[in-house]
Every structure is written in structure tokens, then in C-alpha cells.
Backbone:
């Protein structure tokens, strides 16, 4: 909820600065006095966690780039050198590679929160769409980052993903091939490809940073949604961001960093794939290629469709749907707390997504394909059929009149 | 104005110049294959057995997703037809993995484990998500035991 600024600069430097570049006012209004609903739960801490992840990736990335060589003959060795010889190189690389995983873990939870509490609905459609754009940029960044160490999975991942575009040959013969040739800068994934991926991998996080700024701006106009999904009615339903949420977010960030540290120090390769410690070999594909865990659900959708172009369209469509979600689910009640039927379908959706992740990690034969097809069907049905229908059919239950009413009634029940 | 920025990503002059690869066939016994690199991509060069050739020739075009006769596929750009030699791309036409050879898959040709595409002993797609046959590059016979791809 942005309103007139309440910042009163101290006399002297603060006033002088405020009349020229109101930086302190800006920081105060966005991070200190910002009125925040008083009932946010821990699902709301992932925004702050994501910001920490982005900053960590950028810092570790910049120092890795000081030691990394983007050339097919040297990339793998340069990463091994980072691991063995560069001072603390092992730590920086493990922070960066596990940091990407933690980033995705947080973004998935952040998005699931949005789906559950209806945070994509009016007046937050643009906020949501900016979020989906960030998610897409993150996927592009992580994909290109994974190519850089030039191991077997790097190479074959790059091959498979860039070849997705060759499916456009089925639309207009030659179109797909021209796109892949252009993406590769040659006739296959090769040195030019690695070079441009490094350039873009360096660039995109800063683009993400800019979109995050827009995302936060779009957040600060309507203000936060909250677990009741009811808009803030008066100032008494809010608390200033600092100290209430700086402390709550700070606590969550510390817990999250502990999990991160557990991976970095005790099991740094648990989330990776052993084949990526074998240098890229264009002549031999590993027996079972899989993407990083955070792409598995989408990989499963790609493989669920027996047709090449069809699989590609389904995979991109699954994210495309998120863009129009605010207009698919027209239910007035935002929070699933008060939507007894939609809530069950939401849980089923989460399960379907996890099942897809599992299917993506397994070789695609027999029952796995069928299971992936069912789960893919449900994923699309949830957005295209279930939510639009429930918006018309479902009767919400127990919607409180205001945030305060909800907080007080749960106090009475002793919750 | 935009075009130079787009076009710089297309293959450069030196990449285009790496045009051809020569292969010595005398080193490949019957029933074996080798992989060679041509323009950064792997190519299969297979010395097929009698049985493989017969099997490939006996398939009727109506059974094929991407109809092509075996003779078409095993003929070099100079018109030489020596069915024991099959030269073709080693990147699956689905998403580019290198299929397993030596009679793999349900059609005794190649099998791509990435997403389960089966190719027959002529490298034609028979089952799975790949849309087309493994493409045959331009190649010519320089002598009885030597070919030049590209
Ligand atoms: C959105 C933020 C980012 C994400 C999600 C991300 C993700 C990744 C991933 C998954 C890898 C492969 C790790 C491995 O298995 O070795 C990687 C590698 C790399 N990244 Fe990033 N990255 C991000 C930001 C950056 C930035 C800002 C830079 C440079 C300024 C950078 C530089 C590098 C370098 C040099 C490598 C290769 C070294 C290595 O493989 O460890 N990254 N990145
Ligand atoms: S790459 Fe061969 S089946 Fe997908």
C-alpha cells in the first residue's frame, strides 16, 4: 500500500539530499515504514530469500568469471582448476552451483504461495506477470550456466534444449534449422555456442535484477496480499516493514542459509549429476541424460507427448499459461483458505507437479510415460478447466470481513 | 540497422570454411561402424552386412514415417551406389543425441536412448518422437576405399 511518504528528513545533510535526490526517502518508504499486512506468515519470507539468492549468485558468479575460460578446449580444465588450485575456488563454485538450486527451490515455493493465496488476482496481475518473466529469465540463465563447465551433461543438455527449436521445421521446413544454426553459430553446439552462452549468462542476472526492481515496484503500489486474501482496509491492519518483517524475513533467511550451507559443505554434489565431471564428448551421449532437478517437471511434459513439435509446444505452453492465469481464474475469493474445493485441486496440482518431476528423472519408457501424460493433462486441466469452472460453481466458506476480523477470530479459537 | 547484431551470431567465415572430411573405409570391417566429425557434428559411417542391406531393402515405403528407399539413402552424391556403405548424420533428428548403433533398437539399426527413437538398418525413423530419418550428407567416393564428406 503506497501512500504519501511519511519520511521526515533530519535537518542538515538529509534535508539537503532529500531536495536533490531523495534516496533516503525512497529507502525509508520501501523498506522501513512500508505498511505491511500484520498477518503475513512464513510463506511470505521467500521474496526476501530470493533477493539474497540473486545477490549471492551475482557475487559468486563475478569472481568465478575471473577464473573461468569460455573455450571448448579450456572450459572444463578451468573449472577443475577453480576446484583444485584457485584459493577457495571450491567454495565459490559450490556456492554458485548449489545457489542456483536453492534459488529455484525458493522460487517454486514463492510461486506455490502465490497460487494458493490468489496473489495473481486483481490488482496484482502485472506483479504476477513480472514474476513469470523473472522465472523464465532464471531458467534461461541457469540453463546457460550449466553449459559453461563443458562436461557431458553441459554439452548434451545444450544440444537437446537448443534442438527444441529445430521442431519448427515441422511448421515451415528450414525455419527450425536456421534458428538452431543461428543459436549455435555453426552446425552444432560448439565453441561459438559456449562463448555466447557465457556472454548471456553474465548479462541475464542483471536483467533479472532490473525486472526484480519492477516486480517490487509493482508490489508496492497495491501492497502485499496476505493469507486471508482480503485487501487491507485501514492502517491499523498493517505494521511497518521494519522492524516487524525485517526480523521475520531475516530469521527465515538464516534458516534458509543453513540449509544452503548443509549442501555446500556436506553434500555439494547431491543435486548435480556425476556425468558432468566427464569432459564434453560430441561423439558419445551419456546413457541417461537428465536436466538439473529444477527443470525435470517441464522435461517430463516434453517427453510425455510423442510428437516432437507437440512436446515443445506443451512444454512452453505450460509456462505460457501462467501469464494468463489472472484471467483464467475469475473467482472473487482470493485465498484458498476459504475455497474448500479449489484448495483440494491445488494440493492435487502440487502433487502432479512433483510426480512430473519424478517422471522427468526416470528413463522414458512404459508406465512412466503414461503417468507423465496423466500428470501433464492434470497440469493443463487445473488452469484451463478446473479454475475457470470453480470460479463459477464454488461457494466460498467462512470468508471473514476483514484482516482484523480474521486475526481476532483465530485468536478466540486459540490458534 | 539491427541485422549486423543478429547476423553476427550466424556461422562465421572460418566456421563455414571447415568444409570437408575424408574417411578411410579400409579400416572398417563388415558389420562395424565408425563415427567421424564433419563440421562439428558426428557422422556414422557403417559397413553394413548382407542381412542388414536385405532387411533395409525389403521394407515397403508405406511402413515408413519419412518414406525413402534404401537405395536413395545409400547412394553417394556422385551417383555411386554401394549398399554396404551407409553414411549419415549421427545426431538423432529428435533433439540431437547420438543413437546407439550396431543393430540396436526394435528395427536392428539404431536406438536413441534419450527419448526412445528407433531407426532401422537404413537409418530411417520407425518408432519414437524423432520426426525424420537420419540425414545423409553429401559425400563422394574418391577411390574404392576412401570417401570425402562435404
Ligand atoms: C540468476 C543468477 C544465476 C544463476 C541461476 C546461475 C546459475 C549457474 C549454474 C547452474 C552454473 C553451473 C554450475 C556448475 O555445475 O558448475 C553456473 C556456472 C557459472 N556461472 Fe552462473 N548463475 C547466475 C549468475 C551468474 C553471474 C551474475 C555470473 C557472472 C558474473 C555467473 C558466472 C558463472 C560462471 C563463470 C560459471 C562457470 C563456472 C562453474 O561452472 O562453476 N553466474 N551458473
Ligand atoms: S534425442 Fe533421440 S529420441 Fe530424443
Residues:
Amino acid at each position: 500500500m503506497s501512500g504519501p511518504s511519511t519520511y521526515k528528513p533530519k535537518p542538515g545533510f538529509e534535508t539537503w539530499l532529500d531536495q536533490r535526490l531523495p534516496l533516503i526517502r525512497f529507502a525509508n518508504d520501501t523498506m522501513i515504514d512500508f505498511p505491511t499486512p500484520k498477518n503475513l506468515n512464513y510463506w511470505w519470507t521467500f521474496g526476501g530469500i530470493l533477493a539474497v539468492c540473486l545477490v549471492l549468485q551475482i557475487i559468486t558468479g563475478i569472481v568465478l568469471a575471473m577464473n573461468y575460460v569460455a573455450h571448448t578446449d579450456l572450459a572444463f580444465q578451468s573449472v577443475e582448476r577453480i576446484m583444485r588450485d584457485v584459493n577457495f575456488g571450491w567454495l565459490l563454485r559450490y556456492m554458485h552451483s548449489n545457489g542456483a538450486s536453492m534459488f529455484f527451490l525458493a522460487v517454486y515455493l514463492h510461486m506455490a504461495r502465490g497460487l494458493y493465496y490468489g496473489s495473481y488476482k486483481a490488482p496484482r496481475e502485472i506483479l504476477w506477470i513480472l514474476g513469470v518473466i523473472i522465472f523464465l529469465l532464471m531458467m534461461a540463465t541457469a540453463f546457460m550456466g550449466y553449459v559453461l563447465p563443458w562436461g557431458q551433461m553441459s554439452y548434451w543438455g545444450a544440444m537437446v534444449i537448443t534442438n527444441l527449436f529445430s521442431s519448427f521445421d515441422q511448421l515451415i521446413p528450414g525455419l527450425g534449422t536456421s534458428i538452431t544454426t543461428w543459436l549455435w553459430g555453426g552446425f552444432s553446439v560448439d565453441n561459438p555456442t559456449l562463448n555466447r552462452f557465457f556472454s548471456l549468462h553474465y548479462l541475464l542476472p542483471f536483467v533479472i535484477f532490473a525486472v526484480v526492481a519492477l516486480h517490487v515496484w509493482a508490489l508496492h503500489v497495491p501492497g502485499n496480499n496476505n493469507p486471508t486474501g482480503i485487501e487491507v482496509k485501514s492502517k491499523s491492519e498493517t505494521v511497518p516493514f521494519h522492524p516487524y518483517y525485517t526480523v521475520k524475513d531475516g530469521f527465515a533467511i538464516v534458516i534458509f542459509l543453513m540449509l544452503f550451507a548443509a549442501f555446500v559443505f556436506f553434500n555439494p554434489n547431491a543435486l548435480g549429476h556425476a556425468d558432468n565431471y566427464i569432459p564434453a564428448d560430441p561423439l558419445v551421449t551419456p546413457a541417461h541424460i537428465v536436466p538439473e532437478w529444477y527443470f525435470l517437471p517441464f522435461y517430463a511434459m516434453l517427453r510425455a507427448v510423442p510428437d516432437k513439435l507437440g512436446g515443445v509446444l506443451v512444454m512452453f505452453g505450460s509456462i505460457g499459461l501462467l501469464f494468463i492465469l489472472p484471467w483464467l481464474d475469475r473467482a472473487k475469493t482470493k485465498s484458498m483458505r476459504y475455497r474448500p474445493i479449489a484448495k483440494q485441486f491445488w494440493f492435487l496440482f502440487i502433487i502432479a507437479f512433483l510426480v512430473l518431476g519424478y517422471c522427468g528423472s526416470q528413463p522414458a519408457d512404459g508406465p512412466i510415460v503414461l503417468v507423465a501424460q496423466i500428470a501433464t493433462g492434470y497440469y493443463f486441466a487445473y488452469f484451463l478447466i478446473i479454475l475457470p469452472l470453480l470460479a463459477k460453481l464454488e461457494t466460498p466458506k467462512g470468508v471473514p470481513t476483514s484482516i482484523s476480523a480474521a486475526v481476532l477470530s483465530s485468536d478466540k479459537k486459540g490458534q | 540497422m539491427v541485422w549486423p547484431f543478429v547476423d553476427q551470431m550466424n556461422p562465421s567465415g572460418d566456421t563455414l570454411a571447415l568444409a570437408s572430411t575424408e574417411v578411410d573405409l579400409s579400416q572398417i570391417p563388415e558389420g562395424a561402424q565408425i563415427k567421424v566429425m564433419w563440421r562439428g557434428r558426428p557422422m556414422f559411417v557403417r559397413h553394413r552386412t548382407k542381412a542388414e542391406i536385405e532387411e533395409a531393402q525389403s521394407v515397403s515405403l508405406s511402413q515408413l514415417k519419412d518414406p525413402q528407399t534404401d537405395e536413395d539413402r545409400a547412394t553417394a552424391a556422385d551417383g555411386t551406389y554401394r549398399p554396404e556403405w551407409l553414411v549419415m548424420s549421427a545426431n538423432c533428428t529428435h533433439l540431437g543425441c547420438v543413437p546407439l548403433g550396431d543393430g540396436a533398437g526394435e528395427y536392428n539399426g539404431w536406438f536413441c536412448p534419450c527419448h526412445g527413437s528407433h531407426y532401422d538398418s537404413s537409418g530411417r525413423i520407425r518408432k519414437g518422437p524423432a520426426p525424420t530419418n537420419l540425414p545423409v550428407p553429401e559425400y563422394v567416393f574418391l577411390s574404392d576405399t576412401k570417401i570425402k564428406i562435404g
About this structure: Chain A touches chain B at residues 156, 159-164, 166-167, 169-170, 181-188, 190, 192, 196, 282-285, 287-289, 303, 305-309, 311, 363-365 (CB under 8 Å). The pocket of protoporphyrin IX containing FE (ligand 1) is lined by residues A 54, 57-58, 61-62, 64-65, 68, 79, 93, 96-97, 100, 103, 138, 141-142, 145-146, 148-149, 201-202, 205, 208, 272 (CB under 6 Å).
